[in-house]
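From: lab user (bench 3)
To: helpdesk
Subject: output format question, protein + uracil

Hello, I'm new to running complex predictions and I'm not sure whether the block I got back is the full result or only part of it. Here's what I submitted:
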Amino acid sequence: MDNVYSSTHPLVAHKLTRLRDRTTDPRTFRELVREIAVLLTYEATADLNLRPRLVETPLAPFNGAEVLERIGLVPILRAGLGMVDGVWELLPSAEVWHIGLYRDERTLKPVEYYNKLPIEPTVSLCLVLDPMLATGGSAAATVDILKRWGVRRIKFVGLIAAPEGIARLHQAHPEVPIHIAAIDERLNERGYILPGLGDAGDRQFGTG
Ligand code: PRP
Ligand code: URA
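Helpdesk reply: Thanks, we reran it on our side. This is the complete output you should expect:
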């Protein structure tokens, strides 16, 4: 499918396997979420626009470059929070805008509970961060919110996707690239990704 990038990096495969392991404790789980988010963001930002920047080295002038875009990191609460810190180290001048959504357990539809975006957009490129793309409802709703805010360029960065979630996000927003560590088999009857890793929020925050 166009615009879907599933990482083939060996370090991602190694770390994701440890993340899936049910015996991985919350502290290690958080470290792995952070590390995989960095590796995926490195791949997802390969096409950032640059502008020229002249600097002086101690010996001579140098015609270099700097990132042109104003970048917003948009973690979907709660589970997306664990992806922020590592990505922020790669992109230290990024703004962080939180979107609070939870999935209604019965309907599996996203319910919005936190959104403090100002009226005018302050960024030109948003990276939506959420480890799990299950039905795709939460990601699609977040992209809806960001488009209404006026953001022109949006990318989704996640850890594990179900084919159903990719199809839903892609159908709703075909121009949004999906960067993911792995595409799993399917959803179970409760909307969980199989084989997946269980509940990403609970495993990070020790609330399961
Ligand atoms: C999880 C996950 C996504 C959503 C994915 O969050 O972090 O946001 O479910 O499911 P979807 O693709 O079917 O919408 P959850 O609602 O469990 O909230 P939490 O992060 O607060 O635990
Ligand atoms: N949310 C999760 O945390 N895990 C899933 O498998 C699906 C939704």
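A quick orientation on your result: Residues 108 and 189 are 11 Å apart (CA to CA). Let us know if anything else is unclear.
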